[in-house]
Amino acid sequence: MIKTDILIIGAGPVGLFAVFEAGLLKMKCHLIDILPKAGGQCIELYPKKPIYDIPGYPEILAGDLINNLIEQGRQFEPGYTLGEKAEKLEKKSDGSFVITTNKGTKHNAPIVVIAGGLGGFQPRKPNFEGIEEFEDKGVSYFIKEPSIYKDKNVVISGGGDSALDWTIELAKIAKRVTLVHRRNEFRGASDSVEKVQKLKNDNKINLITPAEVYKLKGSKHLEKVLINKENEEIEISADFFIPLFGLTPKLGSISDWGLEIEKNSIVVNNSLDYQTNIPGVFAIGDINTYPGKLNLILCGFHEAALMCQAAFKIINPDKKFILKYTTVSGVAGFDGSLKKAEGSVLKSIK
Description:
By secondary structure, the chain is α/β, with parallel strands linked by helices. It has helices spanning 13-24, 41-44, 62-74, 161-170, 190-201, 297-315, 326-329, 344-349; strands spanning 2-3, 6-9, 29-33, 50-51, 60-61, 79-82, 86-91, 97-101, 106-109, 111-114, 120-123, 153-157, 176-180, 206-208, 212-218, 222-229, 232-237, 240-243, 247-250, 261-262, 265-267, 281-283, 288-289, 331-332, 338-339. The protein folds into two domains: 2-121 and 247-339, FAD/NAD(P)-binding domain; 125-243, FAD/NAD(P)-binding domain (3-Layer(bba) Sandwich). Helix content is 23%, strand content 28%. Helix 1 packs parallel to helix 3 (62-74) and helix 4 (161-170) packs parallel to helix 5 (190-201). 34% of the residues are buried.
């Protein structure tokens, strides 16, 4: 049985940052993730997609963010159980928990943290006949490696942030990008909408609204995309069709653990520490819900920091918690050495 202080279910960005915050408080972490490598959706779905709302980074690729978070937490030597799904939660007589995976691996910890993002997920697919025939033959529901679209004709369908962001990014390298949306209005950020409109005005992309893709043509690979625009048929050449309609979240086995669930999200007490209705079980990141919740990575980082402080008090009830800034207390560097602040400011005020 694997024993640790904090057992984290989900090795996405929020779970990875929790490793660092816990490490500052001398607590060890072990992460479980159904994916074969750490990183969650940032690695599995869009590693080359730029992210713009991480403090201190005007722009950073999702994959690079994950690499940085892994490196930041490496000094605290977290454990990983990857490629396995957390299935069963049991509470022992001593108050600790045992998590068993689908492969029978058992983990024991006094604290369980659910940081599973959207939980298990699957793409929402367009509802027209024959699209499955072209999956992996020009149809993809995620973009992992943008370089394969270089000098190709790409059709993107959708009206949210992903569709807008990838239209902007692929317009830089593709031969031609066509964005199709069933409405004239978009659901994404206004800045992205303005950028897409400018690309259209500059004749750098095709924008077809209101319209829907309803049929695909091709022999061994996708060749044509048929679009219905107000009962008018438009046929365009396409090497790739990428419908970006979002993901359908599923909590899976977690929904059977006795947690309070609201619309596929875990209810937590945000006024204290993001603990669930089960004492000792926390939920942080996109998987939780509370009044005023924002599904942003930076909000998940905040939740992780507060959760770790609460976890410290549970694990160490007789110890007094004193918040120390890393610039004062020092933190092990990536090379394993201890880097401490010079302390000149502290000396001057004593």
